[in-house]
Give the backbone structure.
Amino acid sequence: MSQESDERPRWLDRSENVDKICYALYAVCGGLLLADLFYDRKTHFEFETWLPTGFAGVYGLLACVGLVLAAKLLRVLIMRSEDYYD
Amino acid sequence: MIEQIPPGLPLILGCLLAPWLPRTLKSAYLLLLPLLTLAHIWSLPADHQLALSIFDGAYTLELVRVDKLALVFATIFSIAAFLSQLYALHLDDDAQHLSGNIYAGSAIAAVFAGDLITLFVYWEATAISSVFLVWARRNQRSYRAGLRYLVIQVGSGVLLLAGTILHFADTGSIAFDHLGLVSPATALILIAFGIKAAFPLLHNWLQDAYPEATVTGTVYLSSFTTKLAIYALARGFAGTEILVPIGAAMTAFPIFYAVIENDLRRVLAYSLNNQLGYMVVGIGIGTELALNGTAAHAFAHILYKGLLFMSIGAVLFRTGTANGSDLGGLYKSMPWTTGFCMIGAAAISAFPLFSGFISKSMILTAAEEEHRTLTYLVLLFASAGVFHHSGIKIPFFAFFGHDRGHRVEEAPLNMRFAMGGAALLCVGLGVFYEPLYAMLPFPADYTPYTTTHVVTTLQLLLFSALAFTLLMRSGIYPPELHSTNLDFDWTYRRAAPALVSWATIAISWLQSTLRSLLSRVGTAAQTGLSRLATPPGAIGEPWGTGTTSLCAALLLGIVLVFYYA
């Protein structure tokens, strides 16, 4: 492994560019939330119509936040040192 | 003539010649073998059968049975064998080349097996040949992981054989057609398949062994064993209701582990387990659409999962580690690998225009059409979770995230070609899906690209990305840590041995306590009796004549009473 020296800085190295990506993501998410209003959505389940728009988005967001929080809790129970089995 | 040769057998036997060839010729030869196998498979006449009579015609083995289900799996197995071989071409290790090809050939031969005995033979052949891909890492850790893997894999074969024998006793048939969960015999066979398909609680060999295999070995391993089991389940247990909850559980529980696992190849092993869940659900639902979805998903999955293992393998090959905590910023020195990994990540996440989308949506639609609400919600949750850990976590921690200062060479050319080929197929299948649909076991009248599907999928995925971004930026996301996470293998690696040693200690304690107790009682009794029987003990003195006559009279009296009573 050599050290990072005399390297030209990359576009992603600047934190304001990372911010730009995040803002772009927020914008796309906002757009997708509205997209449901502009076409005839085919649904199979009643719960998909509980929200006027963006059921999948809300579900995905909640699912992932729930997943990560649950996984953090799981760590308390099951995490051991790296050489546990050695 | 060529119809008389079981497909896969030329790959198994042909690779044995490789060690005797000079290096360049060997490389070309090893690449040619899977391509010839593919040509062989596609040259077989539809509905072709090859039977073999044994024991003077008393039994018939159906060595080859060609149908669409077998063809689609054999095709993707051959493509996987080619790409895995290309990825491993830089290796100067005949042991790995041989075991990889024998393993791939056995899996191909197994999907053409028309009877359970032939299936059993190749089933065990895949187990025995593949363990050398773990052992080829040549360290103590991989040796032990390989042993555990072998015991469980061979155990699956033993159950398959036991089930086959009982099934033959029940029905007089060893044909491998639809079995269904109808008897103890077929239950044994289902468990045998379930072990290799990594059903919940039977799954841990996968996450235990795959990350311990060599860089190139894991790519082979990820393609064959589990998908052979999916094929076998689709053949024997389509429409078996219990597979729906089993599959749904498989999609969900591994993703929790994937979020906190540090070894990125183990993260991929957990997500492999999750992907198998979709296929098992499809088999359980059992409609034509669901079974088509399972076959299509297996096809797409082998390519993107192989691609992901290849890209993280390349990282391990160059940096010496696959731990998320020690990686980051590699896009600067491995841009090709980064790009290929992101294509694999998009494909496994089922982004529109990538292969996962056109296969997974069939299974989700099948669940929708059957109005299986809970199953659908679990699958949707798991889809968000897959994107979260395979789509974002893997590329993020390996190639972006915090730059750990690794400045390494790009992956070797052969690895880049293999990754490029797999990536091309991931995109190609996502856009031109009709040739794959035409290969599926049932007529596929399905349109993946509807507005609802595309918008719903994009919403699900991008809001998952939003969740990752928000959690990451707020510092809530759990950091990658050097750790071991306990899973079900703890029961046989720690609990069972501990139980045995506790039981041994308890039994020996009980034994010694009982022994000393008994000997103490014995000694006390002996002392007491001898004190009683020796002078001046109560019965130790000689009796006088009076006492003796009194006793004799008393005894006579008792006898008389009983005699006349």
Chain B has two domains: 1-237, 238-485.
